[in-house]
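Thread: "does anyone have the structure for this chain?"

Original post by V.I.:
We have the sequence but no experimental structure in hand. Need at least a predicted one for the grant figures.
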Amino acid sequence: MGRFPHFFSLLPIFSLTVIFLSTTIALPQPAAALPLSTDSRWIVDETGRRVKLSCVNWASHLDAVVAEGLSKQPIDSISKKIVSMGFNCVRLTWPLFLATNDSLANTTVRQSFRNLGLIESIAGFQVNNPSIIDHSLISAFQAVVSSLGDNNVMVILDNHISKPGWCCSKFDGSGFFGDQYFNPDLWIKGLTMMASLFKGTPNVVGMSLRNELHAPKKMSMIGTGPAQQGAKQHKVIFHPLTGQCIHRKSLLEPLKLGPCTDSEAWSYNTQQKTLTIKGTYFCLQAAGLNKPAKLGVICSDSTSKWELISDSKMHLSSKLTTDGAAVCLDVDPSSNIIITNNCKCLNRDNMCDPGSQWFKIVNSTRSSSVTTLFFGFNSVFDFLRNNMLGSLVDSA
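Reply from O.Q.:
Generated one for you, tokens below.
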């Protein structure tokens, strides 16, 4: 069982958002006994009870840098309304400059509205939340988190944008690293400051590191700009549990998990169901139950056919020639070697953890190491001579 810190580690770079948002509104749930932790693939509370985060968005990243609605209703009323609608969590947005610009953070709520000419909002705020109208913006933000905590609502802090304002457009200057308002070093500094500020706040259970990354600079960095012109797309076999990919250092060593930067370029034939190393004759094969998967050159039998099965479509399954039994790709935890085992967690068993058998065939434009891996084998016949014929001589 692993403890959550009060903020999550960095998620994959093009998906910098917490993934626990739910679109289902249910009846009010019992309050989770904080802090949260993990038990296998489940989020659980301090008593071991499974927790599902049902989150609603509450914007606090717009020009005024104040949580929306506070000029209309008291904080506590809004917090209670959230609970009554069946939510147990709020994705509370904030602009980066709230954490990195002291002048902005120390501006009072009253002054912020006045600077924007929102005189009616000042009057409404004075009626509904008089206790915080003269607080600084960062203090008002903390007050919202505190009110949610008083009502047993968990909070995910969402860094939505850098400069306060509406998100998103192609020209907001906050779309991607290096944009006018998106300095990566300042971003890390802001995240660190917010994490430190709320480190001792029990109901802050996570942090969404950045709202959706967007054009125009993003596009040139993920495959459509000048830097990627001429790059050829291929597949890699990704293992989500470890964040690694299948690769092989040589044909004399077993397939293992390793950095995706070292992965071969694979291709998946959706009609023949074969996984082959691009530019070669070699295909992925199942060798037997609890045995290492291998590469071979005879790719027509059942052990070379790989189906994406289960509801997740992340089990890669093949059939053994000996008895027709279905096996799935798996990982030997002691060696990181890719093996085939009986498929697990195909039924809806909440206590079964399929993580080791989950693989994803994903697109990549990274340069692959296939040329160096197969440099010593000029043809399929070299491979047969060095492997199959050698085995026959040894066994004679």
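V.I.: this helps a lot. The domain at 2-221 is CATH 3.20.20.80 (TIM Barrel).
O.Q.: and The CA atoms of residues 32 and 49 lie 8 Å apart.
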